Amino acid sequence: MKWWQLALAAGAAAGLLTAQPVFAADSQVIRNEWQDEHLGPGVARWVDEDGNVWDQPGVRPDMADAAEGNGAAADENGTAEAAGDGTQENTADGVPTGDGVPSGDGASQPAAEDAAQETGRIIDPSKPMVALTFDDGPYGPVGNRILDCLAQYNGRATFYVVGERVPAEAAEMQRIVAEGHEIGNHTYSHKYLNKLNTAQIRQEIDRCADTVQSVCGVRPATVRLPGGNKNATVLAAVQEPIVLWNVDTLDWKTRNAQQTVSAVLDHVQDGDIILMHELYQASGDAALQIIPELTNRGYQLVTVSEMAQYRRGGLQNGQIYYSMKPQ
After folding, report:
1. So what's the pLDDT on residue 34?
2. 15: exposed, middle or buried (C-beta count within 10 Å: 0-12, 13-18, 19+)?
3. Do 223 and 165 fall into the same domain?
4. Nearest Cα to 325, choosing from 280, 286, 270?
5. Is the domain of 32 the same as that of 102?
6. What is the pLDDT of residue 102?
C-alpha cells in the first residue's frame, strides 16, 4: 500500500473517533438532545447545538468531567442517593401505604429552586410530582435504557444500588450522577438487616456508601432496607433517612412489562414513591412506557430528595418515608 493510501486510511479511522453531524431521516437536524434513545442499552448519544454527535454514549460533553469521576462536578448536578437490590422485595412485613411522616427541617425552598435552575430544571411545587425508584442495580443493560428515556423527557429518578455491584458498573454509576439523578444505599450485599446485629447492619450500610463514593464521588443520602424488613435493632442502627415506597409494582415477581405499567398508571397519585427494579429487561420496557406517559399527564419526575425538599422541607435522619403526599 502506498504512503498516500496509508494516510487516507489513517485519516478515515481518525474521523470515526470525532463528532460528526447527524441528520434525521426527514432531513431535520437534531440539536441539543439525545439520539437513538430506544435502540438499546448505552446507545444514546448527545447531539450539540451544531448537530455534532458526542462520541461517548450516555454522556453529555458539558458533564464529561463528572462522568469521569469528578466528585465536585457530580455533586453540583444531583444530590447523592442509592439504588439497588438483587432479590425480590418482601412486602409481607406490613409496610404501610400511607404517609405518616412529620414535616422536617431542611434547606430553604429558594435554595432548592436555585439548585434546580443550575441543572436546567425548575420544579413547580404546586404541580404533581412522583419519585420513580429503581432497586437492585446497578445493571447497565437495563439502567442505561432507563437513563436514556429519562434524558429524553428531562426526568430524574432515584437508584438504590447494592454496593458489591457498583465497581463493575462504574460507567453507569458515573452517568447517573452526571445527569442529575440520585443514588441511594441498598446495603453492600443485600442482606436482610432484621437478621443482623447492630455492627453488621452498620457494616452493610457504610461499606455500600464508601464504595459508591469511591466510584462516583458522591455519598448516598438515604437508605432503602432490603425487602423493607425492619425491627427495633434496624431502626436504632440506621441513622440515615429511610425511604421505602407506597406503590409496589411487583415487577420482580411478574416480570411482565404491561402488568408493571398498569400497576403504576392505573393507581398513580401526587406524591407517590414508586418501587421498580433495575435488574429485569421487562422493568426497563415498562419504564420506557411509564416515563413518557407520566410526563404527558403532567407529573414532574423528581428524585426522592427533591420531592422531600418541596413536600417536607427536606429529609430527616431516623425518619421513614413511604410517600410524600401534599399536606
Report:
1. 57
2. exposed
3. yes
4. 270
5. no
6. 30
Q: CA-based Rg of the chain, rounded to a whole angstrom?
A: 20
pLDDT for res 43: 52
Enclosing domain of residue 134: 69-321
Burial state string for 150-183 with b = 16 or more CB within 10 A and e = fewer than 16 = bbbeebbbbbbbbbbbbeebebbbbbbbbbbbbb
pTM: 0.68
Q: Are residues 155 and 203 in the same domain?
A: yes
Q: What are the cell numbers at 251?
A: 415487577
User: Is the domain of 26 the same as that of 160?
Assistant: no
Which one of 85, 99, 135, 148 is the catalytic residue? Answer: 135
Cell triple for residue 151? 434524558
Residues of the chain with pLDDT under 50: 2-28, 37-42, 63-118
Distances from the Cα of 144 to the Cα of 36, 43, 183, 327, angstroms? 12, 8, 14, 35
Q: Catalytic annotation on 38?
A: no
Indicate whether 327 belongs to any domain. no
Provide the 3-class DSSP secondary structure of residue 29: strand
93 catalytic, yes or no? no
pLDDT the model gives residue 30: 63
CA distance 272 to 297: 14
Look at residues 35, 63, 91 and tell me which one is the last residue of a structural domain. 63
Phi-psi region of 82 (alpha: psi -120 to 50; beta: other; left: phi over 0): beta
As to burial, measured by CB atoms within 10 angstroms (0-12 exposed, 13-18 middle, 19+ buried), residue 270 is middle
As a whole number of angstroms, the distance between CA 277 and CA 263 comes to 13
| Count of structural domains, the chain | 2
**pLDDT at residue 41 in the model:** 38
Residue of 181, 186, 190, 277 marked active site: 277
* 26 and 78 within one domain: no
